[in-house]
Request: fold
Amino acid sequence: MVVRRSKQNKAILRVLRETTSHPTAVYIYEQVRKEMPDISLGTVYRNLGLLKQEGKILELGLAGTPNRFDGNTQSHCHFRCEQCGRVYDVDEPVDRGRDERVAQKTGFKIYYCGVQFRGLCKGCQS
Amino acid sequence: MVVRRSKQNKAILRVLRETTSHPTAVYIYEQVRKEMPDISLGTVYRNLGLLKQEGKILELGLAGTPNRFDGNTQSHCHFRCEQCGRVYDVDEPVDRGRDERVAQKTGFKIYYCGVQFRGLCKGCQS
DNA sequence: TTAGGTGCAAAACCTTTGCCATCCC
DNA sequence: GGGATGGCAAAGGTTTTGCACCTAA
Reply:
């Protein structure tokens, strides 16, 4: 199966790369629609799925809110606000050596390691 | 609003405490149904929601698979298999001091911090 | 030319909710 | 008795899919 880079695919990846906001599929859909009014949400999901399989993006599963996508596939830290659902990047180092150690210990193959903080973001602490 | 501990609520919490498998709502439903055949899936979800609010359990959002629940609310490490969706506990220390540091730096309020590994579990490495 | 991609709409799936009966305190 | 909870079923929201039509290689 040859990967054909459609313009929809490119646009979706571009939106994801141009933002640091970990958007939902619907947000991406709205952005892409500005320049490509006929694109459908199904196509957005389809391409997000492909990009994920290719390892170009990351899908973040969040209990209670629609999934979000991240153009940064490096292991890194996220903070998720339990109130508003937003996901912020946190600038903290991830211990790369640990991946090795855990892989050894468990026999699992590790592709990605992220740290996830949960709590309330500034705006949501009333 | 007084919290009344119904027997359904107790049974759901018990199932969650007795397993380390981070079950889905449906799995919990099936387990509880063995002793309480009339319980409905809606009730399971309702009680999981309540237990989550009380901070007695954790909900794990996983892209692509139904959410899973964890009776262990301590900050800890998970490994998630991208193939089969299973979630395993990983016995690695979580750096508690970092929560403080990140809270200071960002102004966010942090309730929980978990490390999430992704990859392939032993059984799924064909 | 042609496998793979798109748009559209319907389906599937997970989760939440409304309503009324039931159960505890 | 009366508020909280449960069972049932319908609704809601997100994501996937089938199909006929395009399109990039």
